Request: fold
Amino acid sequence: MTKGSSAALIEARGLTKHYDGFSLEGVNLAVNEGEVVGFVGQNGAGKSTTIKALLGLIRVDGGEGSVLGTPSDELTRASGAATKERVGVVFDTVSLPGHLRVADVGRIYASAFASWDAHRFSQLTRDLGLDPKKAVKDLSRGMGMKLSLACALAHDPQVLILDEATAGLDPMARDEALERLRDFVAQPGHAILMSSHITSDLERIADRIVCIDAGRIVFDLEKDAITDSAGVARCRVADLERIASSGMVPDSELRYLRHDYGIDVLVPDRFAFAEMFPDIPCDRMTIDDYMSLTLKGGVR
Amino acid sequence: MKRAYLIELTIFRDYGRQLLALGFLVAVLVGCGMQTVLAAPSIITCMFFMMGAMGAAAYDEQNDWGRFRLTLPLSRRDVVLGRYGAIVTLGLGGMAVGLLAAFAISAVASAVELPGELSQALALDAGTLSAMAFATTFCLLIGATVASVVTPIYFRLGQTKATQLLPTIIVLLFVLPVVFLGNSGLLDGALPGLEQIASLLAYIETPEGLAVGCAVMVAASAVILAVSAALSLRLYETREL
Reply:
Protein backbone atom coordinates (compact mmCIF):
# COMPACT_ATOMS: atom_id res chain seq x y z
CA MET A 1 0.00 0.00 0.00
CA THR A 2 2.49 2.55 -1.15
CA LYS A 3 1.32 6.12 -0.96
CA GLY A 4 3.22 6.89 -4.12
CA SER A 5 2.59 8.79 -7.27
CA SER A 6 4.06 8.86 -10.72
CA ALA A 7 6.17 11.84 -9.65
CA ALA A 8 7.85 10.12 -6.70
CA LEU A 9 11.41 11.35 -6.24
CA ILE A 10 12.46 8.10 -4.58
CA GLU A 11 10.59 4.92 -5.34
CA ALA A 12 10.86 1.20 -4.66
CA ARG A 13 8.54 -1.18 -6.45
CA GLY A 14 8.58 -4.75 -5.26
CA LEU A 15 12.24 -4.72 -4.25
CA THR A 16 13.32 -8.26 -3.47
CA LYS A 17 16.69 -9.45 -2.31
CA HIS A 18 17.58 -12.81 -0.82
CA TYR A 19 20.45 -13.48 1.56
CA ASP A 20 21.13 -16.51 3.74
CA GLY A 21 18.77 -16.04 6.64
CA PHE A 22 17.18 -12.81 5.46
CA SER A 23 15.10 -11.64 2.53
CA LEU A 24 13.75 -8.33 1.42
CA GLU A 25 10.30 -9.26 0.16
CA GLY A 26 8.65 -7.01 -2.39
CA VAL A 27 9.31 -3.69 -0.71
CA ASN A 28 7.20 -0.81 -2.01
CA LEU A 29 8.07 2.70 -0.96
CA ALA A 30 7.64 6.17 -2.42
CA VAL A 31 8.90 9.57 -1.36
CA ASN A 32 7.16 12.46 -3.07
CA GLU A 33 8.17 16.06 -3.46
CA GLY A 34 7.91 18.02 -0.23
CA GLU A 35 7.72 14.90 1.92
CA VAL A 36 9.81 13.60 4.77
CA VAL A 37 9.29 9.86 4.95
CA GLY A 38 10.38 8.19 8.16
CA PHE A 39 11.58 4.64 7.61
CA VAL A 40 11.37 2.60 10.79
CA GLY A 41 11.84 -0.97 11.88
CA GLN A 42 13.79 -3.12 14.29
CA ASN A 43 17.50 -3.84 13.84
CA GLY A 44 17.94 -6.18 10.89
CA ALA A 45 14.43 -5.51 9.57
CA GLY A 46 15.72 -4.43 6.15
CA LYS A 47 15.99 -0.63 6.32
CA SER A 48 19.64 -0.38 5.33
CA THR A 49 19.27 -3.13 2.73
CA THR A 50 16.40 -1.20 1.15
CA ILE A 51 18.47 1.98 1.13
CA LYS A 52 21.44 0.16 -0.39
CA ALA A 53 19.18 -1.30 -3.06
CA LEU A 54 17.72 2.14 -3.82
CA LEU A 55 21.25 3.54 -4.22
CA GLY A 56 22.30 0.71 -6.51
CA LEU A 57 24.93 -0.57 -4.08
CA ILE A 58 23.52 -4.09 -4.20
CA ARG A 59 21.87 -5.98 -7.02
CA VAL A 60 18.29 -6.90 -6.35
CA ASP A 61 16.71 -10.25 -7.22
CA GLY A 62 13.42 -8.66 -8.18
CA GLY A 63 11.55 -5.41 -8.43
CA GLU A 64 13.07 -2.06 -9.18
CA GLY A 65 13.99 1.17 -7.50
CA SER A 66 14.59 4.66 -8.74
CA VAL A 67 15.98 7.92 -7.44
CA LEU A 68 15.04 11.14 -9.23
CA GLY A 69 13.77 9.06 -12.13
CA THR A 70 17.02 7.15 -12.61
CA PRO A 71 16.75 3.39 -12.11
CA SER A 72 18.73 2.34 -9.06
CA ASP A 73 20.83 -0.16 -10.99
CA GLU A 74 22.11 2.68 -13.17
CA LEU A 75 23.19 4.91 -10.30
CA THR A 76 26.62 3.32 -10.05
CA ARG A 77 27.05 3.18 -13.82
CA ALA A 78 28.27 5.94 -16.10
CA SER A 79 24.72 6.41 -17.42
CA GLY A 80 23.26 7.26 -14.02
CA ALA A 81 26.10 8.53 -11.85
CA ALA A 82 25.34 12.17 -12.70
CA THR A 83 21.95 11.85 -10.98
CA LYS A 84 23.81 11.55 -7.69
CA GLU A 85 24.87 15.18 -8.06
CA ARG A 86 21.39 15.89 -6.70
CA VAL A 87 21.35 13.27 -3.96
CA GLY A 88 22.74 13.72 -0.47
CA VAL A 89 23.43 10.55 1.47
CA VAL A 90 24.31 10.07 5.12
CA PHE A 91 24.96 6.64 6.61
CA ASP A 92 24.99 5.83 10.29
CA THR A 93 28.72 6.47 10.63
CA VAL A 94 31.09 9.00 9.12
CA SER A 95 31.88 7.04 6.02
CA LEU A 96 35.29 8.55 5.30
CA PRO A 97 38.85 7.38 5.99
CA GLY A 98 39.78 8.37 9.52
CA HIS A 99 43.01 10.22 8.75
CA LEU A 100 41.25 12.87 6.65
CA ARG A 101 40.82 16.26 8.23
CA VAL A 102 37.53 18.15 7.99
CA ALA A 103 39.10 20.44 5.39
CA ASP A 104 40.21 17.39 3.35
CA VAL A 105 36.64 16.12 3.42
CA GLY A 106 35.62 19.43 1.86
CA ARG A 107 38.25 18.88 -0.86
CA ILE A 108 36.93 15.40 -1.57
CA TYR A 109 33.39 16.68 -1.97
CA ALA A 110 34.63 19.58 -4.09
CA SER A 111 36.22 17.03 -6.43
CA ALA A 112 33.11 14.85 -6.45
CA PHE A 113 30.32 17.41 -6.90
CA ALA A 114 30.15 20.02 -9.64
CA SER A 115 27.58 21.85 -7.51
CA TRP A 116 29.72 21.87 -4.35
CA ASP A 117 29.41 25.10 -2.43
CA ALA A 118 32.66 25.50 -0.52
CA HIS A 119 31.46 28.68 1.15
CA ARG A 120 28.31 26.97 2.42
CA PHE A 121 30.37 24.04 3.68
CA SER A 122 32.69 26.38 5.58
CA GLN A 123 29.71 28.15 7.05
CA LEU A 124 27.99 24.91 8.03
CA THR A 125 31.11 23.46 9.63
CA ARG A 126 31.65 26.73 11.50
CA ASP A 127 28.03 26.81 12.67
CA LEU A 128 28.23 23.19 13.77
CA GLY A 129 31.47 23.75 15.66
CA LEU A 130 33.66 21.56 13.44
CA ASP A 131 37.37 22.39 13.45
CA PRO A 132 38.70 22.20 9.85
CA LYS A 133 42.00 20.83 11.15
CA LYS A 134 40.47 18.01 13.15
CA ALA A 135 40.79 14.48 11.75
CA VAL A 136 37.69 12.38 11.14
CA LYS A 137 38.98 9.70 13.53
CA ASP A 138 39.18 12.26 16.33
CA LEU A 139 35.57 13.39 15.97
CA SER A 140 32.99 12.08 18.40
CA ARG A 141 30.10 10.17 16.85
CA GLY A 142 27.88 13.20 17.16
CA MET A 143 30.42 15.55 15.58
CA GLY A 144 30.98 13.01 12.83
CA MET A 145 27.28 12.95 12.05
CA LYS A 146 27.29 16.75 11.96
CA LEU A 147 30.10 16.61 9.42
CA SER A 148 28.17 14.10 7.33
CA LEU A 149 25.08 16.30 7.40
CA ALA A 150 27.12 19.37 6.46
CA CYS A 151 28.53 17.45 3.48
CA ALA A 152 25.10 16.25 2.42
CA LEU A 153 23.65 19.75 2.54
CA ALA A 154 26.51 21.68 0.93
CA HIS A 155 26.12 20.44 -2.63
CA ASP A 156 22.56 21.65 -3.09
CA PRO A 157 20.89 18.21 -3.31
CA GLN A 158 17.30 17.67 -4.30
CA VAL A 159 16.76 14.62 -2.15
CA LEU A 160 18.37 13.42 1.05
CA ILE A 161 18.67 9.76 1.95
CA LEU A 162 19.57 9.51 5.61
CA ASP A 163 20.29 6.24 7.38
CA GLU A 164 20.27 6.87 11.13
CA ALA A 165 21.67 10.34 10.51
CA THR A 166 20.63 11.78 13.85
CA ALA A 167 22.06 8.90 15.89
CA GLY A 168 24.64 10.12 18.36
CA LEU A 169 23.58 13.76 18.25
CA ASP A 170 22.83 15.42 21.58
CA PRO A 171 19.32 16.87 21.96
CA MET A 172 20.41 20.41 21.08
CA ALA A 173 22.29 19.24 17.99
CA ARG A 174 19.31 17.08 16.99
CA ASP A 175 17.03 20.10 17.25
CA GLU A 176 19.40 22.04 15.03
CA ALA A 177 19.74 19.20 12.53
CA LEU A 178 15.97 18.73 12.34
CA GLU A 179 15.54 22.46 11.84
CA ARG A 180 17.95 22.37 8.90
CA LEU A 181 16.17 19.35 7.44
CA ARG A 182 12.83 21.13 7.80
CA ASP A 183 14.24 24.15 5.94
CA PHE A 184 15.65 21.84 3.30
CA VAL A 185 12.40 20.05 2.57
CA ALA A 186 10.46 23.31 2.49
CA GLN A 187 12.23 24.22 -0.74
CA PRO A 188 10.46 23.28 -3.98
CA GLY A 189 11.36 19.91 -5.46
CA HIS A 190 12.98 18.56 -2.30
CA ALA A 191 12.26 15.41 -0.29
CA ILE A 192 13.84 13.28 2.44
CA LEU A 193 13.90 9.56 3.14
CA MET A 194 15.05 9.14 6.69
CA SER A 195 15.56 5.88 8.50
CA SER A 196 15.78 6.25 12.24
CA HIS A 197 15.35 4.47 15.54
CA ILE A 198 14.77 7.82 17.20
CA THR A 199 11.07 7.97 16.53
CA SER A 200 10.68 11.20 18.50
CA ASP A 201 12.66 12.86 15.69
CA LEU A 202 10.28 11.43 13.15
CA GLU A 203 7.29 12.61 15.15
CA ARG A 204 8.65 16.12 14.81
CA ILE A 205 9.63 16.09 11.16
CA ALA A 206 8.11 13.22 9.17
CA ASP A 207 5.01 13.46 7.01
CA ARG A 208 4.70 9.73 6.58
CA ILE A 209 5.93 6.68 8.43
CA VAL A 210 6.85 3.47 6.65
CA CYS A 211 7.61 0.48 8.84
CA ILE A 212 9.49 -2.59 7.71
CA ASP A 213 9.74 -5.87 9.56
CA ALA A 214 11.50 -9.06 8.50
CA GLY A 215 11.98 -7.60 5.03
CA ARG A 216 8.34 -6.68 4.46
CA ILE A 217 6.58 -3.35 4.71
CA VAL A 218 4.06 -3.66 7.52
CA PHE A 219 2.55 -0.20 7.40
CA ASP A 220 2.81 3.00 5.39
CA LEU A 221 0.76 5.73 7.04
CA GLU A 222 0.49 9.48 7.29
CA LYS A 223 2.26 10.40 10.51
CA ASP A 224 -0.76 12.38 11.68
CA ALA A 225 -2.91 9.27 11.36
CA ILE A 226 -0.67 7.75 14.02
CA THR A 227 0.18 10.62 16.33
CA ASP A 228 -2.93 12.80 16.00
CA SER A 229 -5.82 10.44 15.29
CA ALA A 230 -4.83 7.09 16.73
CA GLY A 231 -4.68 6.29 20.40
CA VAL A 232 -3.76 3.58 22.89
CA ALA A 233 -6.65 2.46 25.05
CA ARG A 234 -5.44 1.21 28.44
CA CYS A 235 -7.91 -1.58 29.07
CA ARG A 236 -8.79 -4.40 31.40
CA VAL A 237 -9.68 -7.77 29.90
CA ALA A 238 -13.41 -7.03 30.10
CA ASP A 239 -12.88 -3.70 28.31
CA LEU A 240 -11.29 -5.48 25.36
CA GLU A 241 -14.43 -7.59 24.98
CA ARG A 242 -16.62 -4.47 25.14
CA ILE A 243 -14.53 -2.74 22.46
CA ALA A 244 -14.61 -5.81 20.26
CA SER A 245 -18.36 -6.26 20.58
CA SER A 246 -19.01 -2.55 19.89
CA GLY A 247 -17.86 -3.03 16.30
CA MET A 248 -15.89 0.23 16.45
CA VAL A 249 -12.82 -1.59 15.23
CA PRO A 250 -13.29 -4.66 12.99
CA ASP A 251 -12.13 -7.82 14.77
CA SER A 252 -9.47 -8.47 12.14
CA GLU A 253 -7.92 -5.04 12.81
CA LEU A 254 -8.23 -5.01 16.58
CA ARG A 255 -4.62 -5.04 17.73
CA TYR A 256 -3.73 -5.42 21.37
CA LEU A 257 -0.71 -5.98 23.55
CA ARG A 258 -1.00 -7.66 26.94
CA HIS A 259 0.92 -6.33 29.93
CA ASP A 260 1.06 -7.50 33.52
CA TYR A 261 -1.21 -4.64 34.46
CA GLY A 262 -3.67 -4.69 31.59
CA ILE A 263 -4.09 -4.63 27.85
CA ASP A 264 -3.14 -1.87 25.40
CA VAL A 265 -5.47 -1.63 22.43
CA LEU A 266 -4.76 0.22 19.20
CA VAL A 267 -7.57 2.65 18.51
CA PRO A 268 -7.61 4.27 15.04
CA ASP A 269 -9.68 7.29 16.17
CA ARG A 270 -9.06 8.17 19.80
CA PHE A 271 -11.57 11.04 19.82
CA ALA A 272 -14.43 8.82 18.64
CA PHE A 273 -13.24 6.19 21.08
CA ALA A 274 -13.27 8.64 23.99
CA GLU A 275 -16.87 9.52 23.18
CA MET A 276 -17.94 5.90 22.96
CA PHE A 277 -15.91 4.66 25.95
CA PRO A 278 -15.44 7.64 28.28
CA ASP A 279 -14.52 5.31 31.17
CA ILE A 280 -11.53 3.76 29.34
CA PRO A 281 -8.38 5.88 29.41
CA CYS A 282 -7.07 6.49 25.91
CA ASP A 283 -3.64 8.08 25.44
CA ARG A 284 -2.16 9.79 22.45
CA MET A 285 -0.31 7.29 20.22
CA THR A 286 3.43 7.55 19.64
CA ILE A 287 5.23 5.95 16.73
CA ASP A 288 6.92 3.61 19.21
CA ASP A 289 3.52 2.53 20.59
CA TYR A 290 2.20 2.00 17.09
CA MET A 291 5.21 -0.09 16.13
CA SER A 292 4.98 -2.17 19.30
CA LEU A 293 1.28 -2.83 18.81
CA THR A 294 1.76 -3.62 15.14
CA LEU A 295 4.90 -5.73 15.39
CA LYS A 296 4.44 -7.41 18.77
CA GLY A 297 0.74 -7.15 19.36
CA GLY A 298 -1.90 -9.76 18.67
CA VAL A 299 -4.96 -9.50 16.48
CA ARG A 300 -8.28 -10.83 17.70
CA MET B 1 37.27 9.37 -13.90
CA LYS B 2 39.03 12.63 -13.12
CA ARG B 3 36.85 13.14 -10.05
CA ALA B 4 37.63 9.68 -8.69
CA TYR B 5 41.34 10.22 -9.40
CA LEU B 6 41.40 13.53 -7.54
CA ILE B 7 39.55 11.96 -4.61
CA GLU B 8 42.09 9.13 -4.50
CA LEU B 9 44.93 11.63 -4.49
CA THR B 10 43.33 13.61 -1.67
CA ILE B 11 42.99 10.42 0.37
CA PHE B 12 46.49 9.33 -0.55
CA ARG B 13 48.12 12.70 0.10
CA ASP B 14 49.35 12.14 3.66
CA TYR B 15 50.25 8.51 3.01
CA GLY B 16 51.99 9.50 -0.22
CA ARG B 17 54.03 12.18 1.52
CA GLN B 18 55.12 9.71 4.19
CA LEU B 19 55.98 7.14 1.54
CA LEU B 20 57.98 9.61 -0.52
CA ALA B 21 59.99 10.72 2.51
CA LEU B 22 60.48 7.09 3.52
CA GLY B 23 61.44 6.23 -0.05
CA PHE B 24 64.09 8.94 -0.10
CA LEU B 25 65.55 7.64 3.16
CA VAL B 26 65.49 4.05 1.91
CA ALA B 27 67.21 5.13 -1.31
CA VAL B 28 70.00 6.86 0.63
CA LEU B 29 70.49 3.90 2.96
CA VAL B 30 70.40 1.37 0.12
CA GLY B 31 72.85 3.46 -1.91
CA CYS B 32 75.32 3.79 0.94
CA GLY B 33 74.82 0.22 2.14
CA MET B 34 75.29 -1.35 -1.28
CA GLN B 35 77.93 1.20 -2.25
CA THR B 36 76.11 1.90 -5.49
CA VAL B 37 73.25 4.17 -6.48
CA LEU B 38 72.12 1.67 -9.07
CA ALA B 39 69.54 -0.22 -7.02
CA ALA B 40 67.79 2.59 -5.15
CA PRO B 41 65.41 3.86 -7.88
CA SER B 42 64.41 0.34 -8.87
CA ILE B 43 63.68 -0.75 -5.30
CA ILE B 44 61.61 2.38 -4.59
CA THR B 45 59.68 2.08 -7.86
CA CYS B 46 58.73 -1.52 -7.17
CA MET B 47 57.92 -0.77 -3.55
CA PHE B 48 55.68 2.18 -4.39
CA PHE B 49 53.61 0.28 -6.94
CA MET B 50 52.96 -2.46 -4.42
CA MET B 51 52.31 -0.16 -1.49
CA GLY B 52 50.07 2.03 -3.62
CA ALA B 53 47.85 -0.91 -4.52
CA MET B 54 47.72 -2.29 -1.00
CA GLY B 55 47.44 1.02 0.81
CA ALA B 56 44.58 2.22 -1.36
CA ALA B 57 42.64 -0.99 -0.74
CA ALA B 58 43.09 -0.54 3.00
CA TYR B 59 41.43 2.88 2.89
CA ASP B 60 38.39 1.40 1.13
CA GLU B 61 37.49 -0.56 4.22
CA GLN B 62 37.88 2.30 6.67
CA ASN B 63 34.45 3.40 7.91
CA ASP B 64 32.81 1.78 4.88
CA TRP B 65 34.41 4.38 2.61
CA GLY B 66 34.38 1.94 -0.32
CA ARG B 67 30.61 1.70 -0.10
CA PHE B 68 29.92 5.34 0.62
CA ARG B 69 32.13 6.44 -2.28
CA LEU B 70 29.55 5.02 -4.68
CA THR B 71 26.89 7.34 -3.29
CA LEU B 72 28.96 10.22 -4.69
CA PRO B 73 28.49 11.12 -8.38
CA LEU B 74 30.94 8.43 -9.48
CA SER B 75 30.41 5.27 -11.46
CA ARG B 76 32.10 1.99 -10.66
CA ARG B 77 34.19 2.56 -13.78
CA ASP B 78 35.33 5.94 -12.44
CA VAL B 79 36.35 4.33 -9.16
CA VAL B 80 38.40 1.60 -10.85
CA LEU B 81 40.14 3.90 -13.31
CA GLY B 82 40.76 6.50 -10.60
CA ARG B 83 42.40 3.80 -8.46
CA TYR B 84 44.72 2.68 -11.26
CA GLY B 85 45.58 6.30 -11.98
CA ALA B 86 46.51 6.82 -8.34
CA ILE B 87 48.62 3.63 -8.21
CA VAL B 88 50.52 4.65 -11.34
CA THR B 89 50.99 8.18 -9.99
CA LEU B 90 52.40 6.85 -6.73
CA GLY B 91 54.59 4.31 -8.52
CA LEU B 92 56.02 6.90 -10.90
CA GLY B 93 56.38 9.33 -7.99
CA GLY B 94 58.44 6.66 -6.25
CA MET B 95 60.57 6.26 -9.36
CA ALA B 96 61.16 10.02 -9.47
CA VAL B 97 62.12 10.12 -5.80
CA GLY B 98 64.43 7.12 -6.24
CA LEU B 99 66.16 8.75 -9.19
CA LEU B 100 66.37 12.08 -7.38
CA ALA B 101 67.88 10.38 -4.35
CA ALA B 102 70.38 8.52 -6.54
CA PHE B 103 71.49 11.73 -8.25
CA ALA B 104 71.62 13.59 -4.94
CA ILE B 105 73.76 10.88 -3.30
CA SER B 106 76.05 10.83 -6.28
CA ALA B 107 76.36 14.62 -6.29
CA VAL B 108 77.21 14.67 -2.59
CA ALA B 109 79.69 11.85 -3.08
CA SER B 110 81.47 13.69 -5.84
CA ALA B 111 81.49 17.00 -3.92
CA VAL B 112 82.66 15.59 -0.59
CA GLU B 113 85.35 13.00 -0.11
CA LEU B 114 83.62 10.16 1.70
CA PRO B 115 85.46 7.56 3.80
CA GLY B 116 86.88 4.50 2.12
CA GLU B 117 86.18 4.38 -1.57
CA LEU B 118 82.55 5.36 -1.14
CA SER B 119 82.84 8.49 -3.24
CA GLN B 120 84.13 6.45 -6.17
CA ALA B 121 81.55 3.73 -5.65
CA LEU B 122 78.68 6.21 -5.65
CA ALA B 123 79.82 8.07 -8.73
CA LEU B 124 77.59 8.02 -11.79
CA ASP B 125 79.12 6.99 -15.08
CA ALA B 126 77.56 5.93 -18.37
CA GLY B 127 77.62 2.26 -17.42
CA THR B 128 75.92 2.88 -14.09
CA LEU B 129 73.31 5.10 -15.72
CA SER B 130 72.49 2.43 -18.32
CA ALA B 131 72.24 -0.26 -15.69
CA MET B 132 70.11 2.01 -13.52
CA ALA B 133 67.74 2.73 -16.41
CA PHE B 134 67.35 -0.98 -17.14
CA ALA B 135 66.94 -2.01 -13.50
CA THR B 136 64.43 0.76 -12.84
CA THR B 137 62.23 -0.08 -15.82
CA PHE B 138 62.52 -3.78 -15.00
CA CYS B 139 61.31 -3.08 -11.46
CA LEU B 140 58.60 -0.86 -12.90
CA LEU B 141 57.42 -3.94 -14.77
CA ILE B 142 57.62 -6.11 -11.63
CA GLY B 143 55.83 -3.51 -9.49
CA ALA B 144 53.14 -2.93 -12.11
CA THR B 145 52.64 -6.70 -12.45
CA VAL B 146 52.21 -7.21 -8.72
CA ALA B 147 49.82 -4.24 -8.51
CA SER B 148 47.95 -5.66 -11.49
CA VAL B 149 47.55 -9.04 -9.81
CA VAL B 150 46.42 -7.79 -6.41
CA THR B 151 44.18 -4.88 -7.42
CA PRO B 152 41.42 -6.92 -9.14
CA ILE B 153 41.37 -9.23 -6.13
CA TYR B 154 41.00 -6.26 -3.79
CA PHE B 155 38.21 -4.86 -5.94
CA ARG B 156 36.34 -8.14 -5.93
CA LEU B 157 36.82 -9.29 -2.36
CA GLY B 158 37.76 -6.21 -0.37
CA GLN B 159 41.02 -5.86 1.49
CA THR B 160 40.30 -8.13 4.45
CA LYS B 161 39.27 -11.18 2.46
CA ALA B 162 41.82 -10.53 -0.27
CA THR B 163 44.67 -10.32 2.25
CA GLN B 164 43.71 -13.76 3.55
CA LEU B 165 43.75 -15.21 0.04
CA LEU B 166 46.65 -13.35 -1.55
CA PRO B 167 49.52 -15.46 -0.11
CA THR B 168 47.88 -18.55 -1.63
CA ILE B 169 47.35 -16.81 -4.95
CA ILE B 170 50.95 -15.54 -5.04
CA VAL B 171 52.25 -19.04 -4.31
CA LEU B 172 50.03 -20.52 -7.02
CA LEU B 173 51.01 -17.93 -9.61
CA PHE B 174 54.68 -17.36 -8.93
CA VAL B 175 56.15 -20.13 -6.78
CA LEU B 176 54.47 -23.34 -7.85
CA PRO B 177 55.29 -22.97 -11.58
CA VAL B 178 58.99 -22.52 -10.76
CA VAL B 179 58.99 -25.47 -8.36
CA PHE B 180 57.09 -27.60 -10.89
CA LEU B 181 59.41 -26.73 -13.77
CA GLY B 182 62.50 -27.24 -11.60
CA ASN B 183 61.43 -30.70 -10.49
CA SER B 184 59.80 -31.87 -13.69
CA GLY B 185 63.02 -32.61 -15.54
CA LEU B 186 61.87 -30.39 -18.41
CA LEU B 187 64.82 -28.09 -17.82
CA ASP B 188 67.40 -30.82 -17.25
CA GLY B 189 69.03 -30.56 -20.66
CA ALA B 190 69.08 -26.83 -21.01
CA LEU B 191 66.65 -23.96 -20.81
CA PRO B 192 64.70 -23.81 -24.05
CA GLY B 193 65.66 -20.74 -26.01
CA LEU B 194 68.80 -20.18 -23.93
CA GLU B 195 70.76 -18.99 -26.94
CA GLN B 196 68.06 -16.50 -27.88
CA ILE B 197 68.00 -15.22 -24.32
CA ALA B 198 71.77 -14.80 -24.35
CA SER B 199 71.66 -12.88 -27.62
CA LEU B 200 68.78 -10.76 -26.31
CA LEU B 201 70.79 -9.86 -23.21
CA ALA B 202 73.76 -8.99 -25.41
CA TYR B 203 71.51 -6.78 -27.54
CA ILE B 204 70.19 -5.01 -24.42
CA GLU B 205 73.73 -4.10 -23.46
CA THR B 206 74.00 -1.99 -26.61
CA PRO B 207 72.67 1.62 -26.40
CA GLU B 208 69.95 0.83 -28.95
CA GLY B 209 69.05 -2.42 -27.21
CA LEU B 210 68.83 -0.63 -23.86
CA ALA B 211 66.43 1.95 -25.27
CA VAL B 212 64.30 -0.71 -26.95
CA GLY B 213 64.39 -2.93 -23.84
CA CYS B 214 63.30 -0.08 -21.56
CA ALA B 215 60.56 0.98 -23.99
CA VAL B 216 59.27 -2.59 -24.24
CA MET B 217 59.17 -2.97 -20.46
CA VAL B 218 57.33 0.36 -20.03
CA ALA B 219 54.87 -0.66 -22.75
CA ALA B 220 54.43 -4.11 -21.18
CA SER B 221 53.74 -2.47 -17.82
CA ALA B 222 51.08 -0.28 -19.43
CA VAL B 223 49.49 -3.27 -21.16
CA ILE B 224 49.48 -5.37 -17.98
CA LEU B 225 47.92 -2.52 -16.01
CA ALA B 226 45.32 -1.99 -18.75
CA VAL B 227 44.39 -5.68 -18.78
CA SER B 228 44.22 -5.65 -14.99
CA ALA B 229 42.01 -2.54 -15.03
CA ALA B 230 39.66 -4.21 -17.51
CA LEU B 231 39.47 -7.26 -15.24
CA SER B 232 38.88 -5.06 -12.18
CA LEU B 233 36.07 -3.30 -14.02
CA ARG B 234 34.34 -6.60 -14.69
CA LEU B 235 34.81 -7.83 -11.14
CA TYR B 236 33.80 -4.57 -9.45
CA GLU B 237 30.76 -4.14 -11.68
CA THR B 238 28.98 -6.97 -9.89
CA ARG B 239 30.40 -6.46 -6.40
CA GLU B 240 27.79 -5.91 -3.71
CA LEU B 241 28.72 -3.17 -1.30
